[in-house]
Amino acid sequence: MKRKAALLLAGMLVCSAALAGCSGSNQASNDYVTVGGYKGIEVDKVADQEEVTDEDIDNYIASVQQQNAQEVTDRPVQEGDIANIDFVGKMDGQEFDGGSGQGYDLTIGSGQFIDGFEDSIIGHNVGETFDWNGQFPDPYTGNPDFSGKPVTFTITVNSISTLPEVNDDFVKTVSDESTTVDEYREEVKKTLEESAKDNYDYSLQAEAWDAVLEKAEVEKYPEDEVNEIKDQLIQQYKDAAESYGMTYEDFISSQMNTDVASFEKQAEEAAQQSIKQKYVAEAIADKEKLTPTDEEYEEHFQELAESYGFEDVDALKQAASEDDLKDMVLQQIVQEWLADNCIQVVNDSAE
Which residues form a coiled coil (predicted)? Predict the structure, then answer.
């Protein structure tokens, strides 16, 4: 969102009359593109919206607990604490692959490590480093070569924290809507259901949009717009190279694994694809009378500002031009319309 919206949107298409589904009533065009068969376009069936389970709700609340973990500084590690640790494992005095970690959050008693490892941390304070001598179980499915072998872990306790109890007081600190645990579980369920619907809608919109773009053909590109987007993209990489203290050529070689000529060709193709999307959206919006009024655009800008975390619409407009924002809004409106008017088809062909 903070990148220029012109790098994300645009398009010019021409759908020839020979394409299946092209007809006067189901064809949209402008000076740059023509796209036919867009209304009622067939797409592969999208997986049904997932049902929210009690386990999903429990997992969500557990993540909220983790986010609100409270640091402990006045006592050693206890059962049930979350200990942030560094650890290095050695067998026969040698470190081994997969036996070390840094900044690892370990809930004591969760059974994530081999028997005895977590218990060894109990009673240690923040900042303490100690050795624990243990033994891999036999058999050890994680790595059969380690089965039954002795191991020494050097463990450092970086911090200790506890999870808040999920009760009505906790709910009041994490929710503006709920005051009891039962109310909060219903709130979480609604949130997850909305998220599942958003995921379903996004998938269907993407399927319909991709299908329409595939049917579309480009008659010509407005070179000034293509060059503008291409130059903006290249400038981003030049700025990045400068921030790394590298030449543009060296940055492209090391970060993109290609040469400047090839990269700039890719940038031009990306600009053309962006232009293609822009003009496809405009053609369909004009034909179906989907283009918002200025007042409606402002309402969409407000939604964008809230969605992307901008303070207000003015802040949003500082990150992207109004024309670019209108392109974004119009493309989203067209994608939603296409999804509402597409036909989902079950693809029975399996390889």
Answer: none
